[in-house]
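Appendix B, Record 12. Input sequence as logged:
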Amino acid sequence: MVWDDLVRQSGAAQGDEDGHTARRLAAANVDNRTNLLVAEYNAIRAVMAQKSAASHTLVGAYLTVVAVILGFVVANRADPRLLLAVPVLAAISGITILRRRRDREAANTYIRDVLRPVAVECSADDRVFRWDDFYAGRRTPAPCCTNSGSNWSSRCPEPSACS
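Logged structural output:
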């Protein structure tokens, strides 16, 4: 979606010399752009939430199927060759989850690179649509890794990861 094609940035009608009308149209255009921006942002976030829910459902279904297969094999009611289905199911599940993750990353990139500059322009505030940056800054390693190297804890995978 090209925002400039939807709403002209100047806000003034061609040939309009009246400053009051131009300001009123500019305010209306900013409101229109803001409404379009919020609607697109909400739609993208709804799709991302739906994809996350689908991924969680897929993982639950995969674990259920693997547990059923293992249960049949352990109870000696099924041929052990049935276990050959587990890697195939794991590959299918993993590929599907990775595709959904790629879709979410593409949506986040679109919000950051396309929608956020328009939101900053409309609101004149640089703090809008900063969730991804905020979250990325808050994701930290294990608690031991936030301390200095001398305070290494056994919870940390290795001392070099803490320094």
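The helical segments are 3-6, 19-74, 85-123, 131-138, 159-162.
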